[in-house]
Amino acid sequence: MKPLFRAISALSVLAIPAAALSPALAQDAVPQAEAPPPASLQTGDETPWIYEGSDVPQDKDWLFGEMDNGLRYAVRNNRVPPGQVSIRVRIDAGSLHEEESERGYAHLLEHLLFRESKYLGPAQAIPTWQRLGATFGSDTNAETSPTHTVYKLDLPAITPAKLEESFKLISGMIREPVLNQANVDAEVPIVLAEKRERGGAGQRVNDATRETLFAGQRLANRLPIGTEATLSAATGEAVNAFHERWYRPENTVIAIAGDVDPVQLARLIEEYFGDWEGEGPTVPAPDFGDPVAPAGADPENPVGELAVLVEPDLPRSVTYAILRPWRPVQDTIVYNEGLLLDALAQSIINRRLEARARSGGSYLYAQVQQDDVSRSTDATFVSFAPLSDDWQAALADVRGVIADALVNPPTQEEIDRERAEFDIAFASELEQKTVLAGSKLADQIVQAVDIRETVAAPETVLNVFRGMEERFTPQEVLEHTQQLFEGDVLRAVYVTPDASDGDEAALRLALNEAPQVDGSARLAAKSVSFEDLPPVGEPGTVVSEGSLGLTGIPEIEEVEFDNGVKAILWSNDAEPGRVTVKVRFGAGYRAFEPEDAPYVALGEMALVGSGLGELGQEELDRLATGRKMGFDFAIEDAVFSFTAQTRSADVADQVYLFAAKLGMPRWDPNPVLRAKAAAELAYDTFATSPNGVLNRDLDFLIKDRDPRFATPDREMMAQVTPEGFREVWEPLLSEGPVEVLVFGEFDREATIEALRKTFGALDARDPIASQVVARVPSFPDAGGGTTVLEHRGDANQAAAVIAWPSGGGVESLRESRQLEILTQLFNNRLMEAMREKAGASYAPQVVSDWPKDLSSGGTILALAQLKPEDVPVFFAEAERIAQDLSTTPPGTDELGRVTEPLRQLISRASTGNNFWLYHLEGATSDPRRVALIRTLLGDYSQTTPEIMQLLAQRYLGARSGWKLAVIPEGQELATKLPRGGAQAPEMSGR
């Protein structure tokens, strides 16, 4: 693990005092005090609780324990990131454990545990964890599902004292929360705000789909969010009864992975949870129920419950499911081999369905997926989106492809292709085993417990898979395909914007019709090899190479080729098996003319798919088979980028693909037409909620209605053609400088040679025109009052945004980092005002955007989803906070609650290659970025109250904020505060 600390030690050269670094960074692990060994560790020949009844080899990195009170735990040492401990406490109770009058209680209880408990006063959990360096929402979080509730803590820079304190606090939260009426009354409005934000057409469809597909089972109407009626009627006594019934040691599993001796972790678990006893007798879990066919159903035509849902703003979609009862299994190797065969069978069908869609089929997408849902059903789901109102044709096409898979074995080539994909995925997991974050390892235990199965080490998964070679035959894959579609219960939902499309009788008739076997989507045998591909051009020449000049990490180097392409390389073994390749080129959003707007979004959707050279999407997929490759494309403020996560063996081929896209692009029309259809189908969905309207219009409005940032409507998209797409994008691929970044475990000399043959072989690039370089988005005038947009969602939903212009560019980058501290101060205060005190918004947020590649164009933006009547409350609170920050310096404790989590966030992130890549990208054209890394940690974590006040005066107090409100169609924006003033707790959510 020593190389992992190379990046951390480099931080010590930054211009900050040594004392500012986290103590955990200066030591290999937390020193442990002598203590009695844990009494409940399962050692020797004893089978750990999670492996009982299984022959899956034990993952020896985990230590397991089961205490006398029934609580089970799993602990392991993990040093990724260094100094962190990830704690997961899982309670085996979710929304399926609620009685009818308790709907929503499991989730409400999750909230209440963070409100007040034995060692934490009212509303003190969040600030307390912040003082310990944990970021709210990412490091401290929780989730409630139908089957469990999980509390998640990722604690950075751990010390023995912090670890002890954390165990004390979380034990108090789990065992002894304060569940009085006052706390219930304070938290219910927040949960109702969360429920309100999830509402709208999409949620209505989700609810109706769940009720249809899981009819007769608890899962049909037991959403974790609950109902407004049951939540509004909640009492402290009733919630406490739910806590006593289910929060018991025998229902609890604790999983911890971190940079601490696991025996010490086990000792702490036993110390703080060993004397925990449940209140009253143990209550068995309720019967979740089985999917049952309607009485008198015809076994030959097992179509059961159906629903046709009319939502004018949603595109057409069909989902049908074959449902079987869920039963616990013996998690054996043979069982897992069956799961792998099931997964491979699904992959073959899905690849065929995708091939049909790509070639101009009747549907936009289609997918088959088997899933064990909430320990309620073992189901196979088929979902697709018709391209027109002829949904019957799309259904017939999808079922025809599936029917072929059910009667005809796949070819061996198809099987081998999917095997190669699985093999590379499992091999990559093994390669990266030593750099898997402790949080993910702890989550894996939680997931295994939830589905009542074991956890397997990556080498076990790979060995089992590779040991199945004799089972990967056409006949056995056919048998597993057939099993996926066996079942006595078939249910379906059709969503349509037009009630005249069809009814339940039409849907039943279509599903009862025997499908026509269609083998045309089978993939023909065709070999594609990188060795057969043409060269990008004449290999270039390296004209210079040497260290980039980053103090402490001289291995990060810059290489320049004679055609002007520059590369930044860092070959290191800090993350075994991982290599990130990023290519930056061109002018980004600056490159487009106003009339190009429809082609901007289509570029992100279709540019890669349109191919390169003689290779279309299908050929590109074949090339990537058995390799770890990627091809993400993004349009950034002032640059375009390709990005991929790959591995050392595939770096040369990965850079070939990227370079070939620039040097010899292909212009296949089908991906453009498919992307156009998707954009047209999706456009109306933006209007279904305030958040959808923000996604559609905020970027456009906050950039002063710059057409380049507009979401094209149906009329604009109707004018789009593949020829127009090429006309816009072809010149952009040959314009502007190219920078290639390769960070990770790779062979330096081989990679430079691969770059010489690919990017070094590109033709000289066309310069970016001066008028393009000068294009910087404007900020709207705040003097015109509040901009008001309407949505067609629920009448109780609204959104509000207030924003101020900031800046951009590298010259003031250090100031932008300090501005991030100010933004987090603003965020904490807005959360306190709008969530904790008013209960008006579930998750208000404040964000700072500072474009490094532009000279200006940055913003500070606050937003929240609310009730329509609370929009003026939000504006008043945001403006009050902005003015308070401008007139009064923040207190030391308040500042520390922001700077300590930021310090830990930077310290942890700096152990990964992507952190360095992100901060060094663009350095070949602007070397100042290299020097600015030296002050990065201090800039984000060290400041003074006076600096914060000065920044607030400069960016928040110097001008009024620009305001945007999104309200329901037909309503008017309230212009006055509700009775009680801006900070009155009773103003909303009650």
From TrEMBL:
Keywords: Hydrolase, Metalloprotease, Protease, Signal, Zinc. It comes from the Bacteria. The keyword Protease applies. InterPro entries: Metalloenz_LuxS/M16, Pept_M16_N, Peptidase_M16, Peptidase_M16_C. Pfam families: Peptidase_M16, Peptidase_M16_C. Residues 1-26 form the signal peptide. One of its GO terms (biological process) is proteolysis. Residues 235-420, 721-883 form the Peptidase M16 C-terminal domain. Transmembrane segments: none annotated. GO terms for molecular function: metal ion binding; metallopeptidase activity. Residues 82-222 form the Peptidase M16 N-terminal domain. Belongs to the peptidase M16 family. This is Zinc protease. It comes from Altererythrobacter xiamenensis.
